[in-house]
Amino acid sequence: MYFCSMTKEFYLKHHSYHIKAIFSALKNIFEKNEYADKAIEKEMRAHKKWDVKERAFVADVTYDMVRNWRLLFAAAGVEGKLTDKNLWNVFGTYLVFDGYELPESNYFKGLNAKKIISQLEKFHKIRKIRESVPDWLDELGEKELGKEWDKIIRALNQRPSTILRANSLKTSPKELQTILEEEKITDASLISWSPDAVELKFPRNVFRTEAFHKGLFEVQDASSQMVSEFLNVQAGMRVVDACAGAGGKTLHLAALMKNKGRIIALDVKENKLLELKKRATRAEVRIIETRTIDSSKVVKRLKDTADRLLLDVPCSGLGVLRRNPDSKWKLNLEEIERVKTIQREILTSFPDITKVGGKMVYATCSILPSEGEEQIKWFLKQVGDKWSLLGEKRYSPEIYHADGFYMALLERMK
Q: Which residue of 4, 50, 314, 404 lies most exposed, with the fewest beta carbons within 10 A?
């Protein structure tokens, strides 16, 4: 648990307005289809006088309830709209689920802790309810992952830790650990399999730290960091990041290249690239050029020019459910099929950016083989001996305690 018992019980007993903010966020997430981070951010803006602990309490509980939404509703025995009465019943169920006694309050009148525990035990035997996933997702996971699905979805339904990527242009993970200690962040530890990663055991707003404003780190999961590592870039290379977004991996590539060479960051969304520029300034990265993909000519002009190409393609995002638990309620099979079509379109249109002898990484933050290994098999069948598969890597959440990622390294032969 993120809060000591005394702290959490204090909020529960004396600050019902915090809980009402949680209810407001939940209604926006499930009734208005807002993203959880945006709904929570809206509550923070509405309560600017809240301190760090208050903000953390609201965010933590909201995410936790979203993560276990189906189980909580089933155990609470409520149906229908998210009325305040229903939400208080679900919230009381959440407290019992999280190991707390029900506070004495009229809000929880009628709830019986023993009955809630009995219901929780009953539904614990049903995976799709225990892990709070829709029926279609449970069926898809079992179909694609077989017996592994049970362990994977359990891992994806756990609270994530905060992972930082030390900006190696300015510091090292060990040095960052020391700097954070000076800012009273004493729970930072290194991750052996991800060279630049620093893990924080307890959540906090790291964006307020002096270390962040100095560009010493970015927030990026450990497995996500390994995508840039897998591309094996060198200083002085010409690199294209074809689906750059806001540039987390682009910035990492620049650091691995020691700020020498050239990176062209592409994306269809100009606002994402504008955010990348801001982040690059803070990190003191000078080798990135951004280009908005507003026509097919942007890609065609880059043909045969790159030593390295990164295709971090749009995907279902099923590998990052720990961080975005609401997405399992927003996704559907049609959307997954749509992104798989986009992945194949990208694999058809972008690889020729690479020079002969150059290398490409295809990556997805998905646990599904149909978005990873199967797409690469399809691609290799299309291109014949033009490309060669050098290696694949899958970071599975139940093994690495990280986001789920797939990545393939390929070399252009002719």
A: 4
Catalytic, out of 4, 243, 315, 365: 365
> DSSP of 293-308, one letter per residue?
--SHHHHHTTTT-EEE
At 385, list the tokens. 């001996």
Residues linked to residue 354 through DSSP beta bridges, in sequence order: 306
The alpha-helical segments, DSSP class H, found in 290-355 are 296-300, 327-330, 333-349
Residue 166 three-state SS: strand
Q: Quick one: what percent of the chain has pLDDT higher than 90?
A: 87
- What is the rounded distance in angstroms from the CA atom of residue 91 to the CA atom of residue 289? 48
User: Which amino acid is it at 2?
Assistant: Y
Residues 221, 362: Cα–Cα separation, whole Å:
18
- Across the chain, what does the average pLDDT equal? 94
C-alpha 291/C-alpha 244 separation (Å) is 10
DSSP state, 263? E
Sequence ranges of the chain with CATH classification 3.40.50.150: 222-412
Degrees (nearest 5) of the Cα angle 271, 277, 283? Answer: 140
pTM over 0.90: yes
The token duo for 390 is 């050098």
pLDDT level of residue 4 (50, 70, 90 thresholds): very low
Q: Which amino acid is at 19?
A: I
Segment (H or E) for 89: helix 84-97
Q: How many angstroms separate the CA atoms of 157 and 131, rounded?
A: 6
d(CA 201, CA 174): 16
CA angle 36/198/185 to nearest 5° reads 80
**Average pLDDT of span 115-125:** 95
pLDDT at 81 > cutoff 90: no
Question: Euclidean distance between the first and final Cα of the chain, in Å?
Answer: 55
CATH topology assigned to domain 162-219: Alpha-Beta Plaits (3.30.70)
DSSP state of 332: -
Cite the residue boundaries of each domain of the chain with CATH code 3.30.70.1170.
Answer: 162-219
DSSP at 161: P
Does the active-site annotation cover 315?
no
**Using one digit for the tens of pLDDT, what is the confidence trace for 296-305?**
999 999 999 9
Contact 187, 200 (CB under 8 A): yes
| Rounded alpha-carbon distances, angstroms, from residue 66 to 122, 179, 322 | 20, 34, 11
Indicate if the pLDDT at residue 131 is higher than 70.
yes
Q: Which CATH class is domain 222-412?
A: alpha beta
